Amino acid sequence: MTYIENVTLDVADETAAEEFYRAAFGLAPEQLRVRAAAEPSEGFRGYTLSLTVAQPGDADSFVASAVAAGATVVKPAAKSLWGYGAVLQAPDGALWKLATSAKKDKGPVTREIESMVLLLGVEDITASKKFYVEQGLTVGKSFAKTYVEFASGDSPVKLGLYRRKALAKDAGVPAAGAGSHRITIGGGTAGFTDLDGFAWQAAA
């Protein structure tokens, strides 16, 4: 089975980005990597990264540490139909969502991350789902032409597909964008580029 082993973000300043992600979220290198690259990118890059936590207080803690480290709040933390969350933009431009399905705290605040999720915004859910199945991924959940979540196995990063415009709306940004996605997905035994231009490289 093919699954994500890590994601690599293209950043202008590798050292600064490493310091930000360590201070903001405490992410392990096996989940998130950064590399210096200068490919042009404008507007929405077509993806979001999410950190899911157990309760609102945990989400607030990560929002506070990220903002202190230099992140910008795109959508302030708030309750929603699905739970509680906020959207931030890292100094390198990547969009991060802090989210929980809970609407009330049930215990002391922690810095524990339950999962990291990469959502790719795609133009055609059906075609992209078929493409990824052909690459060896297994569908875990699928909701018509709206959302697809793949089985993650032992992967430190879960993968989902969402309609590009819907994903941008959920993140609170305009859907327009051009240039590089500025992200590379690591996993599997061979590299490929999907229907929306997202690049995968073989796992080390």
From TrEMBL:
This is Glyoxalase. It comes from Streptomyces tateyamensis.
